[in-house]
Amino acid sequence: MSQLIREFKSEHVQISDLLLQAREVGVDNQQGQNLILSAKKMLLAHLNKEDKYLYPVLREAAENDDSLKSTLTDYALDMDKISADVMVFFALYENGDNTNENFQQDCNNIIKALSKRITKEEAILYKTYDKIKGV
Questions:
Q1: Model-level pTM?
Q2: What is the per-residue pLDDT across 90-113, written as a single tens digit (0 to 9) for each?
Q3: H or E stretch at 129
Q4: Pairwise CA distance, residues 67 & 51, whole Å
């Protein structure tokens, strides 16, 4: 496994852990808000890093691989939906203005959506990246 993929997997764990901690602590206190903000910052940095290092390699390989091209299109559409949902979640809860009773359920929904995406990325995209890189 390449160093880049190890870093991505570690970031996945860290992001998930921050959200799980926030769910436990709640959002009606400074610690919960700090956890939400940290998760947001880490997720955005992770996505930027994938955009910079992972996807260009995959897109280049997809120029000669219709199956990979189709997979990348499907993943991009999926990520657009997840990103929109996650950003709405962060907007609702990151600054403490909304201490809504739906926080636990909303947090569970985001954790599930991210977990599903992470599983797919690690099983398909990351393995494809390492294969392309000869790792």
A1: 0.91
A2: 998 887 667 777 898 999 999 999
A3: helix 126-133
A4: 20
